[in-house]
Amino acid sequence: MRQTKTGILLANLGTPDAPTPEAVKRYLKQFFKRQTRGGYSSSAVVAAAAWRYFTAAFAARRETLSIYLDGWRFAAHGI
Questions:
Q1: InterPro entries from the xrefs (predicted)?
Q2: Which helix (H) or strand (E) element contains residue 48?
Q3: Per-residue exposure over 28-50, b if at least 16 CB sit within 10 Å of its own CB, e if not
Q4: Cα separation, 42 vs 57, whole angstroms
Q5: Residue 6 belongs to what H/E stretch?
Q6: CA distance 8 to 1
Q7: 59-62: which pairs have CB atoms within 8 A and are 24 or more residues apart?
Q8: I need a surface site. Which of 12, 57, 59, 74 has the fewest CB within 10 A?
Q9: What is the pLDDT along the chain (79 residues), one digit of tens a residue?
């Protein structure tokens, strides 16, 4: 019997301009207006985004925020 393997492809479809609520809101508004997202339906994209948001909401917030902001500092200043 042959076993099949299933994989998940994660792709970055953009990022907010800054780590601020306003920038994230603007990014999400533009993101969900798009008609094409790699051939996936809007409901699948919304479900994936909701899953990502809720899993991140329960993660270790301080560590996550620190790592995220360090990435922005590096990108902005090359530090």
A1: Ferrochelatase
A2: helix 42-57
A3: eeeeeeeeeeeeeeeeebeeeee
A4: 22
A5: none
A6: 23
A7: none
A8: 12
A9: 678 887 776 666 777 888 788 888 888 788 777 655 566 666 666 777 777 776 666 655 666 677 777 777 766 665 5
Cβ distance 17 to 26 under 8 Å? yes
User: Under a CB-based contact definition with an 8 Å cutoff, are residues 27 and 14 in contact?
Assistant: yes
Which of the 8 DSSP states describes residue 31? Answer: H
CA-based nearest residue to 13, from 25, 39, 26, 31: 31
Residue bearing tokens 């993101």: 31
Nearest to 69 by CA among 16, 10, 12: 16
The reported pLDDT for the residue numbered 55 is: 66
> Is the pTM higher than 0.70?
no
